[in-house]
From TrEMBL, chain A:
Protein name in the entry: ADP-ribosylation factor-like protein 2
Lineage of source species: Eukaryota, Viridiplantae, Streptophyta, Embryophyta, Tracheophyta
Binding site for GTP: 23-30, 69, 125-128
PANTHER family: ADP-RIBOSYLATION FACTOR-LIKE PROTEIN 2-RELATED
Family: Belongs to the small GTPase superfamily. Arf family.
Source organism (scientific name): Phaseolus vulgaris
Binding site for Mg(2+): 30, 47
TrEMBL record, chain B:
Species assigned in the record: Phaseolus vulgaris (Kidney bean)
Entry's Gene Ontology BP terms: post-chaperonin tubulin folding pathway; tubulin complex assembly
Any one GO CC term of the record: cytoplasm
Chief site of localization: cytoplasm
Name assigned to this protein: C-CAP/cofactor C-like domain-containing protein
Amino acid sequence: MGLLSIIRKIKRKEKEMRILMVGLDNSGKTTIVLKINGEDTSVISPTLGFNIKTITYQKYTLNIWDVGGQKTIRSYWRNYFEQTDGLVWVVDSSDLRRLDDCKLELDNLLKEERLSGATLLILANKQDIKGALTPEEIAKVLNLEAMDKSRHWQIVGCSAYTGEGLLEGFDWLVQDIASRIYMLD
Amino acid sequence: MEDETEKQKKHLAMVERLSKRPQSRPTNAESSAESTSSFLSRFSELKTSIDFQLHQSQSLSSDPPNLKLHFQNISQSISDLEKLVAQNSYLLPSYDVRTSLKTVSDLKLSLQNITNQLIPKTKFSFKNKPTKKDPKDTAIPQPKQLPQPSIPGTRLAARESPGFRNKVGEVLVAEFRGSEVGEFAVSDLDSCEVRIIGSVRALFVHRLKNSRVYVGPVTGSVLIEEAEDCVFVMASHQIRIHSARKSDFYLRVRSKPIIEDSNGVRFAPYCLSYRGIEEDLRGAGLDAESGNWENVDDFRWLRAVQSPNWSVLPESERVGIIDISNLKNGDEEI
Ligand SMILES: Nc1nc2c(ncn2[C@@H]2O[C@H](COP(=O)(O)OP(=O)(O)OP(=O)(O)O)[C@@H](O)[C@H]2O)c(=O)[nH]1
Ligand SMILES: [Mg+2]
């Protein structure tokens, strides 16, 4: 038995999931993680490097990796790909100008071999902002329908500001990972 | 063989730690946690050896030529250590980066002190010369930027945020008192003055030249990309500045302002005034000065030493309080 399968085994027993949060800078990744964890979100600096949060969610333990999205550090995202069960791609739905950038970075990410088995949740964040695009519009711009058929994915509108949509998104993500990993034995 | 038993103890402790992992912080990212811990052990190894070298200096005090060489070696080792931190800085939790950089600067200080102590002042500057490193040596390697092809047809041409766009030489005034505003965009302006009275949730600034931008409190974040020869006066929860050159920022921010790919940018505290601004600032949770206007993080310069890309605007060069209460569109020349 290889090391990987041993690790998988331990993970299964512990009901652990590894979640990687990425997206352009300013999209709201850190705010989302803190909000889900019920922490204060009033003072958050742009992330230099990454944060790890271990959160108990339903009967699972989520290890959430929140990696900074500034251009300088995007090329380091790949250091965090290994062993990812769930990929959360966060979009600032009010940042219309950078949607091209957003699409480009997401496309690059989805080409990654090491992420090919990961469940993908796209959070169309900042829905509380008046001019924000709807999740349907974001899906269209990102051309999500063209995604590889084998990928499990879902797009959910949310606001880290009001908390709306976050649980819906994470419920789906956790259920999908659980059904892939834990119930297939 | 004290060394051997020490080693063994360490090894046992490590095995013990590893065996406990599934209970304590289990899958906590096998690969990255691994690279953090291997960095930390390499780092402490090097540090121990530098400490040891420093400690030995005293015994060479009667042998100046060798002492000089000795100090050069130590200086080289410290540079190597610094390089190691720089190379790993993106893998590491920022806490570890900061403590490592602190350790490096402490070591430099120790070296400095012991050099001063053992080598007479007059010769000091001469002897110290070779230890000086080109700062570029230890700068963080810049990640390669792939040329980014533009993708046609992905834009939603029909939608645009409210904002000011494509103007030359105008005064542009927006007033949002009492009305709920979402995002606001200011882009492609040349020689303009922008005044935003009241509060917005998110502000996007793109491609500005020789312009001045005065804004009331932003309850979310400000994103500025490509600005040259501009003055910004803004209060916000977060401010990100990308590709700015020769511009001054008068800020009040709840978190640290950050710059990336910028140079010649200077910072000073917020100095805007209009009738009712206190109330707006309070409403946005920005009534207290946080002092963060000068806690700038340069993402291209993750080092303990001050980034050369930004500075504090000297008090003598700052503008005074800027009052935009009574100025309506076009009333004033720029
Ligand atoms: N209005 C609104 N603002 C939000 C929302 N989510 C986040 N923000 C704001 O967006 C800004 C960026 O949030 P962060 O959580 O720091 O973004 P990030 O993705 O972690 O950014 P990096 O660490 O630079 O990659 C902050 O000012 C947040 O207050 C939201 O749902 N609505
Ligand atoms: Mg962040």
